[in-house]
Amino acid sequence: MSLQTARIVWFGYIVAACLFISVAHLLRPNPDRVLAASLKWIFTGIAAADLLILGNLRRAMLEKSQEKLQRGETTQAQASCSVAQMLGFATCMSVVLFGFVLKILGAAPTWFSAIFYFIGIGLLILWSPRPYPATCHLLREPAALYSPKPARAFSWSLAVSARPHQEESPCTT
Q1: What is the pLDDT of residues 125-146, one digit of tens each?
Q2: Which residues contact 21 (CB under 8 A, 6 or more apart)?
């Protein structure tokens, strides 16, 4: 997947999250106090586990794409990077959907479901598609996948290259 395609998909996730939030707040369900007492904490635990497990899986996939690229497996590196980005988008959307379901069922007040919305959209913005140092040329130049030459190194901007003693992480999260 190219960087432009990843950004289009990412923007679609942001728009979908905003639509879910607006629908949840346009509907005014009757809160069920018995349901609210247990369901909101169950959903909070599931969302936290979702973020921890899938966030770490996303990071591991980005690191694997780095390793594959260093071995010269550019096609597999691009595929791994694309899957990691899509996994990150889906993870963020699942957190927004937990807040949506809580609000629709009336199991949580607005401020409680807003926590889910802010975390989900905040992570969507934080995990926005950008060229990672190791795989940026794969995302910008799909033709590099079919080149028999080894992968080229990433060239940093002047602001980063002005600090030669600091090492940047190849896979930022």
Answers
A1: 988 887 755 444 444 444 444 4
A2: 96, 99, 100, 117
